[in-house]
């Protein structure tokens, strides 16, 4: 049995109560209108929720949200038990007091004045009362979803996909990558894609940048947010970006420094956060090390990527808890790629994982429309959890995403039709067979 196959029971996990100094992270990029927009001092004022499945929250009721460059911990006095516990442990408590733009709400445990329309009251049950009331979805379809496609997708199709995803209510849509076209030919049109979408309102459109060259090209093309992607496995780092983990961190420090100069927020990925196709199981301490480095260099949010889809609730929680134990404050987990396509078992496991994250209060989820995806440099990375499936699950729990499932499904159908294959979303397939209004199921 390989190290990846060894079962890890919950008994082996450290209990939350034994973890000292948990600081609930507040990784969002809320900036104030009219204030200094330099890194570290700015907040964004919000807008009211206006998507078609809009809720009636009064955004003025949201409690604080930290800006990446100033690690304030929001005042969570109105939050659930987890928040209260975290709040008592946190060092830099500060009330935000600003109205936050929902596009910048990554991990929001907020006091909502939802009228409960469409919410089944499920989250009031004792077991579930601490799960977030709102989850920020990070859509990676146009980038991660398409990067592995062999046939070049026309720029106009990519742009239309992004437009449809944004109009479904998704407020963070990873648009493309400014990487070497020799390494990822599918995204060689990054500049053209960005030029077409960079002024799209209502959404943040981050792009991947592996080095300063990519960062400069991204900014020149109009990108307002970027992401750097390190790995917890040296082998994967070498095959993906042709350098060791340490070398990649040097590059990313340079990217973060340049981004700071221009007030461009940087998101950080940790690939192989559970396992690597070459190295097998990755020690959680290594994941925490890389995450902390990314956080310390200025990444406002850390996404733990289970690149090849070997996460179980046990090993994934162990990695996550290791971050908390190591006081990595920015943590946005929950990306789960499936190892072997779309089998029901894998789908179920992905949901269990997401559910565990929710229970920990983690409320940013990466996913890919129609389940598109795969990394050209990770053998076995054969797809992502479909955004439609995650939204459907969250709807069922009464957790808001502000995403219109029907419009999202149409976006998934659009790209699946173009690629000439069935959607990888079980929900989309099932909803395609019912005649009822999908958003009301
Ligand atoms: C990092 C490099 C560039 C190093 O690639 P390299 O070959 O080591 O780079 P180099 O510095 O030796 O330069 C070689 C050539 O690339 C050019 N170059 C150098 N940088 C750039 C750039 N930014 N944009 C465009 N061109 C670039 C550079 O100018 C030069 O051009 P030449 O002189 O030969 O004509 C390469 O390995 C690369 O592009 N890798 C990207 C691989 C990739 O995109 N993988 C998929 C995304 S990661 C992922 O999916 C995982 C994630 C994020 O989803 C999380 C998860 O699920 O795990």
From TrEMBL:
Its EC number is 4.1.3.4. It catalyses: (3S)-3-hydroxy-3-methylglutaryl-CoA = acetoacetate + acetyl-CoA. Pathway: Metabolic intermediate metabolism; (S)-3-hydroxy-3-methylglutaryl-CoA degradation; acetoacetate from (S)-3-hydroxy-3-methylglutaryl-CoA: step 1/1. GO terms for cellular component: mitochondrion. Keywords: Lyase, Metal-binding. InterPro entries: Aldolase_TIM, HMG_CoA_lyase_AS, HMGL, PYR_CT. The keyword Manganese does not apply. One of its GO terms (biological process) is L-leucine catabolic process. Pfam families: HMGL-like (PF00682). Residues 135-409 form the Pyruvate carboxyltransferase domain. The keyword Membrane does not apply. Belongs to the HMG-CoA lyase family. PANTHER family: HYDROXYMETHYLGLUTARYL-COA LYASE (PTHR42738:SF7). This is hydroxymethylglutaryl-CoA lyase. The lineage of its organism: Eukaryota, Viridiplantae, Streptophyta, Embryophyta, Tracheophyta.
